[in-house]
Amino acid sequence: MRFFPEGFWLLWVAATCSARTEGGNKARSCSELRQLYGAKGFSPNVVPQAEISGEHLRICPQGYTCCTSEMEENFANKSRSEFEGMLKEATRSVQIIFTAQYKNFDGYFQDLLNKSEKALYDTFPGMYGDLYLQNVHLFKDLYS
């Protein structure tokens, strides 16, 4: 099982692609990221042709980068959905266990209620006689 959804890796790739060349101020092409972004199912049209300033970005690097706000949003949404899917998959076995335990407990508790109702109807008429018979509706309401 992977610990990080693919979206996190996409962010890592975006950060890697934004790394500046040593000693160069020339804007680099974003074609490599455009191909990767398109391969992940996103529209490559939102990837800029060359690096842009990322001062406004919240997730991608804030220096010169090939990442845009729309790409950040797409990355975040994909990461969220992949994470939720993996979380559901990972917790499915726990859910199955809880459901089985719930059914076992519910069956056991219903059995106890039925036994106590039977014991009440078997014992109370002989012990309390007319007093019980006058109030039998109260005892029936107790178990309904």
From TrEMBL:
One Gene Ontology cellular component annotation held by this UniProt entry: synapse
General function of this protein: Cell surface proteoglycan.
GO-annotated molecular function: fibroblast growth factor binding
Top-rank taxon, per record: Eukaryota
Gene Ontology BP terms: cell migration; negative regulation of fibroblast growth factor receptor signaling pathway; regulation of protein localization to membrane
Residues annotated as signal peptide: 1-19
InterPro entries, A to Z: Glypican
PANTHER family: GLYPICAN, GLYPICAN-1
Transmembrane segments: none
Organism for this UniProt entry: Micrurus corallinus
Name this protein carries in UniProt: Glypican-1
Primary site of residence: membrane
Family: Belongs to the glypican family.
Keywords: Cell membrane, Disulfide bond, Glycoprotein, GPI-anchor, Heparan sulfate, Lipoprotein, Membrane, Proteoglycan, Secreted, Signal
Membrane association type: Lipid-anchor; GPI-anchor
Location of the protein in the cell: Cell membrane; Secreted, Extracellular space
One Pfam family hit: Glypican
